[in-house]
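User: I'm putting together a small comparison set for a docking exercise, and I want a reference complex before I start. The sequence is below, and the ligand is magnesium ion. Could you produce the 3D structure with the ligand included, as structure tokens?
Assistant: Of course. I'll restate your input first, then give the structure tokens for the complex.
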Amino acid sequence: MPAVNDYWSLVLEALRQKLSKSNFEAWFTSLDFVKTTNNGRKLILSTSSSFSKNYIETKFKHILKEAVSKYYPQVVHIDFEISNTVAETTSLQQEGFFPLQSELSDLQEKIKEVKSKTINLNQGSIIPKKNIHNLNPKYTLENFVVTGNNELAVSVAKAIIEKPGVQYNPVFLYSGVGLGKTHLLQAIGQKILENKPDSRIRYTTCEAFFNLFISGIQNKKSAEFKDYYRNTDVLLIDDIQFIAGKEATQEAFFHAFNELHQNNKQIVITSDKHPKSLGAVEERLISRFEWGIVIDISKPELEDRIRVLKDKVERLRLPLTLDQLTRIATAVDTNYRDLEGVLNRIEARIKLLPEKPFEDYELNKILGGFHQAIPMNIQIKFMPNSSDRIMDAVCKVFDITKVELLGKNRQQHVALARQVAMYLCKNELDLSFPAVGKIFARDHTTVLHACRRLHDDMAIKSKVSSKVEAVKGMLQEAFAQV
Ligand code: ADP
Ligand code: MG
């Protein structure tokens, strides 16, 4: 993986594109990446003063969050450290980058106002008013690609959507990071809402559940907290693993769970581990997690990754070749979030220089951190029965049978087809001459001569090279359907 701070410059670049020059220079040029903590969930940045921290938080919070989440998708909190270098602050002020005194007091008023609003909210209701369903519109069922590793989870999701609370309850969905738990969970919520707009859907992370619970206690509004969860048709709770060790929250969750379950309200829980591996979680909760169905999303295979990539590239309208897609999916074998990270970087580069074709060496650079360099045209190599596929494609292009291709017929047309097939097996599949010889029941020197001859002919006879291209094109098409 590339070093985590490598992406910071991309975040800055994204911000530069979004903001006016003066805003960007005033507030973001001195904003620095410090580190990520909490397994990459928290990003710590350093800024020159608490004033600029407050200003960024008040004015640019969403823009900053958006840019950060593009390149650090796992980050949920952003914190600031104050570096407070006097010299730097002064020079910025001299250059007129900081706001005037009058503007400054306006801002400070604004900050006070925002703070007091937060306090008022706590004094009034503890329940968040805005965005009541809390669902991110980008996580839909339509853009969730069904692949071999998630098809079971998707079919369960569809059953829930059709009849919430009936067939599987609770559903406990677990997987490693970046494999689509949050996406699928939210997609369930959106679809149920689409079918029945008055459904009371509560999507919450385990952390938000915990915070609301604590806030209920602190503000003596525990009853309100209880009511909020009682008045729910579908409870979607994300990343339940964080409940481990939090006994009071477990207790609260236990009661909410029982009440909802008894009333046939649908509960869907996600986690990064199986219920039995959650650690410090009460046994009675674990057993409830297992009452319904426990399903996992496993690590995606190459074909799954290609399928997801293809879908995303089409949605983003990125001009990437199939060869490039295959190379990305081969190099990034971890999860879909990492794949998206790579696509975001490619998208940023393409948007930055739209006139300039996106070259393979640039892709190599982006992929460099993931794996060793990957050979070109790797896609054919990864097809199952690849040598048979090559032979089939050659037969189609040359309109001959496989028996002719493998036989002794020396007619020019058939001999050329045979050379093309040998050449592609040798070069695309990285086979040795004897290995190719075995496929065609020929001596390895015959293969060697055939390959040399074809190589030379391709350079001087466009008819020959266009046949080779036609076979390759056909193989890529076949591959696209994998
Ligand atoms: P998790 O919650 O398991 O860590 P997420 O749901 O946040 O993973 O998924 C990470 C990213 O990958 C999200 O942007 C999501 O949209 C995308 N993603 C995951 N699975 C799929 C899929 N099957 N099809 C399309 N995008 C996916
Ligand atoms: Mg998640």
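The chain has 23 helices and eight strands. The chain has four domains: 4-122, 151-296, 315-369, 386-480.
User: Thanks, that's exactly what I needed.
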